[in-house]
Amino acid sequence: THNLPPGLEYLNQLDQIIIHQQVELLEAILGTETSSKYEIKNHLGQRVFFAVEENGCLDRQLCSPLRPFTIRIADNAGREVIRVTRPLRCNSCCFPCFLQELEVQSPPGTIAGYVVQNWDPFLPKFTIQNQSKEDVLKIIGPYATCGCFQDVDFEVKALNEMTTIGKISKYWSGFVNNVFTNTANFGIQVPVDLDVRLKAVMIGACFLIDLMFFENSLDGL
Known about the structure:
By secondary structure, the protein is α+β, with helices and mostly antiparallel strands. The chain has a single domain (10-217), classed as Tubby Protein, Chain A. Helix content is 17%, strand content 34%. The chain is built from four helices and twelve strands, in the order E-H-E-E-H-E-E-E-E-E-E-E-E-H-E-H. It has helices at residues 25-30, 57-63, 175-180, 196-213, and strands at 16-21, 37-41, 47-54, 69-75, 80-86, 101-105, 111-118, 125-130, 135-140, 152-157, 164-170, 185-189. The protein has a twelve-stranded antiparallel β-barrel with strand order 1-2-3-4-5-6-7-8-9-10-11-12. The radius of gyration is 16 Å and the shape is globular. The N and C termini lie far apart (41 Å).
């Protein structure tokens, strides 16, 4: 474990990670988009990290799910251990050369990996890359992400897209929560021996999937 990025030692023990978006009172009452805050927990519900989104007010109001952001993830001592950066890019199959790409650093300033959207006419598809931009894993979502009162699973697969090794799940959390807030609850399930850097990249993938497919308050019903 002495070779692990500082702060990620705890991820070395986990095969399940829960990401819970905290409810913002102003957003719930007025419908005003505010900076997102998240708690990242283990399977027992114990907080491991917390995360805060940073961007401009105009970015949140005008660009909404396409908005660029930096998400800083800190441990319980307040030390920043992961930084997730998303530039302003396209979210349409009509522009396949400018699709979504997200960079994950751990520790901040050192590349841990990337999440790259792949063009597909029917399914949400992403590639997980390591720090050298080498393809490592695939993430493939369902044709419909509305959920219809149930969880929505994005499968984590080997590069051949035949073998499933885990999943990222958007948990349905009830009608009231989905209608009046944009709060998200995600679960990540991966092999316990997966490189902790890739686990950090999976956390970044959660944030990207949340904004791309579940930003609107009625999504996930």
